[in-house]
Predict the structure.
Amino acid sequence: MIDLWDRPFATDSTSQRNEVLGYLASLHFLAPKSYRSNLIMNRSALTLFSLVLSVYLSAQQPLTNQQIWYSPMFSMEYVGGLESMNDGEHYTVLEEENGVSRIDKYAYRTGERVATVLSGEEVVDPGTGDTIAIEGYSFSPDERFVLIETEVDPLYRHSYYAHHYIVDLESRKVQPLSDRKGPKQRLASLSPDGSHAAFVRENDLYSVELSTGK
């Protein structure tokens, strides 16, 4: 007689169910005639038993390192690239259309776009007249200024180099955070009061006053 417990089962529940049904079918052909009649009469009960057993066996499968570390089984789900706004009713997302990047504003309640905060076509280097591609951004606490990242070069894991621009959303004035002829910056951020920006360049720390650009 076939021993159900001495061989490994398939890992998916459908295959396990098929294996159990195959085992039960083998009992049908190997059993005495009177017992076979019993099996036929109780086919529904046997099918139900096989389903319950397959679910139980599936639940007993041990976890492997492959499943834990390399499979999507335990991958978390999240929404990336979303910046919540001060009013608590809207959020912004960096999007691109026809090769032009833009910061769009959406309503939490409806999920619909309500405005474009800043289009890449508006971000023009005042020295060269070149349009700047928006690759990342952050707002000042009062949401008047936007710190733009462009020409991003990955450094290690989450760190990177980039050129940065400050955009005044009231006047639409664009100014580079520092001289574009120099090396790119790292760790650029806006001060809590929104009056200054700081960044690291060649291991030196710099601070820029937004109102003057100095």
